């Protein structure tokens, strides 16, 4: 019994220390990113969004690292994260159209053709 409890306890202590140190480093990285974006005059809403996304991403990486400390395979987590990244990327791809909507371009074409051209005199 003791041969299993003591190694597990050391791993648990290591995981707690890693979580605390990782959390401190993640908040420090968030402060650096926030101050850099504020110094460059970037929109506060976008700055907050980037800071939140970075924090969540780094915490997920930290959690996977801690689970790896206990011997949990991280390849399945990597596959899930990759699938989530593809899904988010596909969702974001429709947010910013690369060309104007069809209705506005066709109305411009109609308004040009509807105006009579001046005949040369």
UniProtKB/TrEMBL annotation:
Transmembrane stretches, start-end: 12-29, 49-70, 77-96
A GO cellular-component term linked to this record: membrane
Record GO terms (molecular function): mechanosensitive monoatomic ion channel activity
Biased composition (Low complexity): 101-121
Location of the region described as Disordered in the Swiss-Prot/TrEMBL record: 97-121
Keywords for this protein: Membrane, Transmembrane, Transmembrane helix
SUPFAM superfamilies linked: Mechanosensitive channel protein MscS (YggB), transmembrane region
PANTHER family cross-referenced by the UniProt entry: SMALL-CONDUCTANCE MECHANOSENSITIVE CHANNEL (PTHR30221)
Name used for this protein in its record: Uncharacterized protein
Organism: Nannocystis pusilla
